[in-house]
TrEMBL record:
Residues 34-85 form the Anti-sigma-28 factor FlgM C-terminal domain. The keyword Cytoplasm does not apply. Pfam families: FlgM. The keyword Transcription applies. One of its GO terms (biological process) is negative regulation of DNA-templated transcription. This is Negative regulator of flagellin synthesis.
Amino acid sequence: MRINEPNRIGMINAYNKSGNTPVGKSGKIPMGKDKVDISTEALEMQRQVEDPNSPQRREKVDQLKKQVEEGSYRVSSEKIAEKLLSFWKKI
């Protein structure tokens, strides 16, 4: 078997050079800035959510808590199935 260029160091030098990162005057690597973009859909959802401290929401939450404590809170299995299907269809 013949091996071409057994003393080839060109690839080693290229590998070593690829690890170099730009360093500023202070000797530290410059860091980027973090940025958050909120979609228009998320902003719309945020506008639609009721204020958690509103009297209507507090009354509804208290009513649901009472039903759960009494054991009279029931959810339709059809509603659960619809929500599950719509969730899995989005994925």
